[in-house]
Each structure stands twice: as structure tokens, then as C-alpha cells.
Amino acid sequence: MNKCPKQEYIRALALYSAQSGNILPITSRCNVNCIFCSNRQNDPQVEVFNTPLVKLGEIEECLEFMDIHSPVIIGESVTRISEGEPFTHPQIKDILCLVRRRLPHNLIQITSNGSLLNEDMVSFLANLGGIVVYLSLNSCRPEVRADMMRDHDAHRAIMSAQMLNQSKVQFHGSVVAMPHIYGYDDLEETILYLAGEGAQTIRVFIPGYTKKAPDTLRFPPELPGEVRKMISGLRDKINVPVTCEPPALNDLRPEVVGVIAGTAAERAGIAPADLIAEIDDYIPCSRVDAFHRLRDAEYPVVYLERKKETLSCRIRKKAGESPGVVMEYDLGPEWQEINKVAGSYGAKKVLVVTSSLAENIVQLGIKRFAKDLECRVIAARNSFFGGSISAAGLLVLEDMVTAVQEFVSVSGGWTPDLVLLPPVAFDHRGRDLIGISYKEFEEKTGLAVEII
Questions:
Q1: Domain 5-245 identical in fold to domain 334-451
Q2: Cβ 355 vs Cβ 392: under 8 Å
Q3: Checking CA distances to 421, which of 105, 205, 310, 401 falls within 20 to 30 Å?
Q4: Residue 54: burial class (beta carbons within 10 Å; 0-12, 13-18, 19+)
Q5: Alpha helices of 345-396 — where are they, by DSSP H?
Q6: 131-136 and 202-205 beta bridge pairing
Q7: CA pair distance 273, 294, nearest whole angstrom
Q8: Residue 320 neighbours by CB distance under 10 Å
Q9: Cis upstream peptide for 246 (omega within 30°)
């Protein structure tokens, strides 16, 4: 039987995700119903695809495209395939055994809400080895988790953190911050609980809401700042690295947020708030650059700035091995290519379109990497989604077209030779979240366009 175009696209996307990011989608089925889930607020035009239960043969095909040196990622929503709860797949044990058999040395990262992590499953994961669980706990109070996630057995998920710890299965915790509904005490208690149960890191996500969200999910504009302030205070109380996403960054300084216990970085003496000043005679230009250099280096010599002191250490690790430092994400390596991209178009005047969240950090990147270009940066409003949404990954082409047209109309005659759009807004075929190709930008504006 011939597959329909939608099925063919999902399969192509799955194979592309396997090749480009070692991502293995196995099911879109979910056994909870979180009040903050984006699927509740999406416009019908948004291209998000549900996949049926993926068969072992299809998984085997995906594994053929994967990098043998990178973790296999299961259950994390990073593509347009809607990711469900991996442990709802009736063949999850067979799938994990297949991955381990085909890729014996790869870590397997599984994002789970924890509701199906009973003693038998945790024991299986421990025996399989090389498993890292990303536990989406959200609350350590059964009544709060039950209400927030519509989880009818919230206690089991909460206890899963203890079981993972006792079975020595590495895990990281995550929490969607909803203090406007459940209070800051619940948020703090959950972070402390995860830290106490052995989470290697804890990620706190500031939620977003669209124009379609009910009033109960909307929060005041000061909430993100309050959450970040609370987390900053908690970092002094616990030894587990805690990050807040999206971060609010005002510089590109490669500062360490935290250090994972038992790692090479901890053994080398690196501490939270250290600045990575130099790595093997190389001066990193951003947090991302520093992290990649540390990860890729073997036994690197690192110079640190700690308060008013300069210290040195050697991180005893293999090339490609995570050093154990936790840093916030600022600018990806593609920004170092901006001059090359502009040169390929013969462009001297470049207009960079980004989101309001990233505008400040992109401005800093332009000053550092594009000194020979006449660059301007504008933030496009997320008008399509509306609400509190302000991320580049949720911009649609029309948002960007509108922003550029408005800018050009008031720029006093300044017209760019090239417009750069954020790649995170487009899929591997160059289409935005509602299926519009970035190539239509040139048709609508008459301006040359590229993605970076």
C-alpha cells in the first residue's frame, strides 16, 4: 500500500532527525494532559505531526543514520513530530535493547514524565546501562502534579526520582514553572526535592501562552524575572546546577552556571561563577564556544577567572566527553560564519531578524563577529501566536516579513543587501511552522534572504 504524502513527510522528517541530531521518535501517545501543553494552544494551521507507534523495522532504519559518538535522544520535542511518553510504547524494552545492540557505546537519553517508571522498568534501565533519564517532574506534591498534568498516579512519578537514584540510573530533572497558579513554595520545594534525590542538573522552564490561552494560564510580565531571581538564590543553597530557560543574558562571557558532581570538571576544581578565560591557548568568544571547545578537547588546560584571581587547571577527560560544566546557551557557532555568508552575496549592508528574547544577545554577537559589515538587528513580534510568545523558533515567515517591511519604511533610505532569518524558525526544507518556505520572503519584500 502506498503511503500518503503526510506519512511520507513524517518518515522523511524522522530519518532527517536521526541523521542530523540522533533523535529517535517512537510515539506521539501521551498518558497525561498537562495544562501548559502547547498542543492545547496551537492554531490549526500549525504543522505538528502525530506519529503512530513506530515499528522495530522503522527504528532499525533510523539507527542506520545515527552518529555512533553522540547520544540517542528519545522523547524530547525538538522536531515537528509531536513527542509522547516513550514508556507508553508497548515495545519500549525491545526498542531500547535494539538501540543498545546496534549502538553499544552510545548514551541513550530518554525524556519521560515518570508516570510509568516502576521498579521493574527502572531495574531494566539499570541493567541495560548507558541510560540517562530526563525526568519531567514539574511538582513533587502529588495534588499539584495531579492537577497540573492530569496524572492519576502522581505519587508514582514523584517516587521515580528515588528509584532512579537508588538504582544508580543517571537522571536530570525539569520543572515547568507555574507559580502564578501553584505558588513559589511548590516550585522551590520541587527543585530541592530533585536535588536531594540525586538529579545531575535541573532545568526550570518559563512557560509561554498564546493568544488562544485561557485567562487561567496567563501570567503577569514580571513573572519570568521573579522566577530567575528565585533560581539565582537557590543556587547558593544546593550543589546541583539549576538553569532557567529561556535565560536572560546581557553578555557573551563564558561563565559557568554549575558543575555536575563526580565529573572531570569537578575533579579539576572548576566552580560555579568561574569564567572560562582560555582553553589550550584559545580564548573562547561565547558560552557555547567555550562549552564546545571543552567537550571536544582531550585533557585541556583551562585558565579560569574567579573573582579577582586567575587560576589554571587541567580537565582530565577524553575528546568528545562532556566536561561536566553547565553553561547557559547564548550564540551558536553559525554566527562566526556571518562574514562568509554575507560575502557569498556580495553584501555589505545586512539586516538580521531575530526574536525579542534573542535581540540583545544577537546584537552582542554582531558586534563581535561582523565588525566589517554594516549590520542592523531587528526583533520580529510573534504576532501569529501572540500572548507571551517571544521566541525565534515560534516566528512564522509573515511575522518576519512584517518586521522587515516596517523597518525599511522608517529606516531613512537604508536598504539591506541581505536579510538573515533565524534557522530555528524553519524545518529542514526551509518551511516555517505553517508550511511557508523562507524563499517566499524575497518574493514579498524584493530583498535577498538567507538563513543563519
A1: no
A2: yes
A3: 205
A4: buried
A5: 359-369
A6: unpaired
A7: 16
A8: 11
A9: yes
* Fold (topology level) of 334-451: Rossmann fold (3.40.50)
Where do the H-state alpha helices sit in 90-222?
92-102, 119-128, 142-149, 154-166, 179-182, 184-196
Q: Are 80 and 13 in contact (CB under 8 A)?
A: yes
How many residues are present in the chain?
452
Task: Give the pairing type, strands 325-326 and 258-259.
Answer: antiparallel
86: preceding bond cis by omega (within 30 degrees): no
- Which residue's C-alpha cell is 557555547? 288
Domain boundaries defined on the chain: 5-245, 255-326, 334-451
Q: Are the CB atoms for 375 and 441 separated by under 8 Å?
A: no
Phi, psi of 185 (to 5 degrees): -60, -40
Rounded CA-CA distance 337/331 in Å is 12
Rg, the chain, Cα only: 23
Q: Topology of domain 255-326, per CATH?
A: Pdz3 Domain (2.30.42)
| Structure-block grid coordinates of residue 241 | 546546577
Q: Are 47 and 435 in contact (CB under 8 A)?
A: yes
Q: Which three cell numbers stand for residue 35?
A: 495544562
Instruction: Find cell 538580521 and name the residue.
Output: 352
Q: Which amino acid is at 40?
A: R
pLDDT 10s digits, 79-123: 788 999 999 999 999 999 999 999 999 999 999 999 999 999 999
Domain 5-245 carries which CATH code?
3.20.20.70
Q: How far, in whole angstroms, is CA 220 from its chain's centroid? A: 24
Mean pLDDT of the chain: 96
Give me 294's grid cell: 571543552
State pLDDT tens for residues 201-239: 999 999 999 999 999 999 999 999 999 999 999 998 999
Per-residue pLDDT, 430: 95
25 DSSP 8-state letter: -
- DSSP 3-state assignment of 32? coil
Residue 445 burial by Cβ neighbours in a 10 Å radius (0-12, 13-18, 19+): middle
Cell of 268: 579539576
- Euclidean distance between CA atoms 286 and 330, whole angstroms: 7
Three cell numbers written together for 311: 587560576
